[in-house]
């Protein structure tokens, strides 16, 4: 089963309870979803809803927040960095430590080589590209977290 399907079902349709019955419902819904729509539609929906750190949800908001541009304009280097953030966006944020962005970008590129999507030369070339993060991203993130602290 496609991991994004499971996560999409978990994040969209169900509560955060940890029970066996919930896991069974997740599995049934995930299988039904995979039969109803394409993997591309599932992935698109998933990245449009997930958390990207600093109070940001959805790939479009993340792309604009980190790079100041629409996702369709991201370079492979920028897209790989964002993909590397997915499992732990707050810990992997390049705004907290710039080297984190490159570390997890490299992991994504390595997996792309292993899966045959790109060759090693392309991966190494992409890895050498600088990550042009928004200059005001860190200041914006700090202000956003400050404002969110009042909403609790």
TrEMBL record:
GO molecular function: transferase activity
Presence of the UniProt keyword Protein biosynthesis in the record: no
Pfam families the UniProt entry points to: Transgly
Positions of the Glycosyl transferase family domain: 5-112
Keywords, ordered alphabetically: Transferase
Naturally occurring in which organism (per UniProt): Citrus sinensis (Sweet orange)
Membrane keyword on record: no
Alphabetical list of Gene3D superfamilies matching this protein: Biosynthetic peptidoglycan transglycosylase-like
Entry protein name: Glycosyl transferase family 51 domain-containing protein
Domain of life, per lineage: Eukaryota
SUPFAM superfamilies according to UniProt: Lysozyme-like
InterPro entries: Glyco_trans_51, Glycosyltr_51/Transpeptidase, Lysozyme-like_dom_sf, PBP_transglycosylase
């Amino acid at each position: 089963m496609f991991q994004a399907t499971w996560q999409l079902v978990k994040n969209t349709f169900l509560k955060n309870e940890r029970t066996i019955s919930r896991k069974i419902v997740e599995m049934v819904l995930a299988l039904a979803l995979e039969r109803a729509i394409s993997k591309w539609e599932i992935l698109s929906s998933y990245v449009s809803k997930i958390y990207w750190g600093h109070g940001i949800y959805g790939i479009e908001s993340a792309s604009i927040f980190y790079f100041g541009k629409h996702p369709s304009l991201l370079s492979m280097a920028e897209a790989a960095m964002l993909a590397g953030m997915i499992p732990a966006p707050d810990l992997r944020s390049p705004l907290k430590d710039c080297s984190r962005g490159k570390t997890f970008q490299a992991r994504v590129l390595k997996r792309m080589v292993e899966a045959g999507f790109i060759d090693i030369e392309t991966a190494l070339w992409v890895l050498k590209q600088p990550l042009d993060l928004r200059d005001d991203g860190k200041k914006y993130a700090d202000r956003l977290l400050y404002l969110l602290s009042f909403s609790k």
